[in-house]
């Protein structure tokens, strides 16, 4: 499955679309792979707002992969993992584990990530960090597996 459609949901109380360097970087990385970024939005660090944006990306935009950006750390305002759990069906722990393992080779702070990866029907939702540097690093740790993951969710065989 080479043609992937992505949506990016940046979770931030302080960033505008112009200041969202992590989301912009992810959009560029998606394009570098020849994939489509069908949507890129900013939502407040509010559980209901994040959950609604994930539902919109999956159910209306029909993105194969939804990348959330930010809100997965230890701040009390970081509620992206909880919002993801609110609207998704199944956990995909290996992707989040791979991101942390990849990042731990770079910084010990990677162990502080609460990022999740979950499925909503045939869509996958991946929580990425909000900093551009960390988002790029996490992407590098998982990008090779994304086409196969999307193929499996669409009913393809191994």
Notable characteristics:
6 strands; 158 residues; alpha/beta; Molybdenum Cofactor Biosythetic Enzyme, Chain A; globular; 6 helices; 6-stranded mixed beta sheet
Cα-atom Rg, whole angstroms?
Answer: 14 Å
Overall residue-averaged pLDDT value? 95
How many beta-strand segments? 6
Could you say which overall geometry the principal axes of the C-alpha atoms support?
A: globular
In CATH's first tier, which class applies? Alpha Beta
* Integer tally of domains: 1
Which fold name corresponds to the CATH topology? Molybdenum Cofactor Biosythetic Enzyme, Chain A
What is the string of SSEs from the N terminus onward? EHEHEHEHEEHH
Distance between the termini: 12 Å
Q: Strand count, sense and closure of the main sheet?
A: 6 strands, mixed
């Amino acid at each position: 499955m080479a043609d992937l459609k992505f949506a990016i949901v940046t979770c931030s109380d302080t960033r505008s679309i112009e200041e969202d360097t992590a989301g912009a970087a992810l959009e560029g990385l998606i394009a570098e792979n020849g994939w489509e970024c069908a949507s890129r939005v900013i939502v407040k660090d509010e559980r209901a707002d994040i959950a609604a944006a994930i539902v919109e990306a999956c159910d209306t935009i029909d993105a194969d992969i939804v990348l959330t950006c930010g809100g997965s750390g230890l701040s009390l305002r970081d509620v992206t993992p909880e919002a993801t759990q609110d609207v998704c069906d199944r956990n995909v722990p290996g992707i989040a584990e791979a991101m942390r393992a990849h990042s731990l080779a770079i910084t010990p702070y990677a162990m502080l990530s609460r990022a999740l990866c979950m499925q909503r029907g045939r869509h996958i939702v991946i929580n990425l960090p909000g900093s551009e540097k960390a988002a790029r690093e996490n992407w590098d740790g998982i990008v090779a597996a994304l086409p196969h993951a999307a193929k499996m969710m669409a009913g393809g065989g191994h």
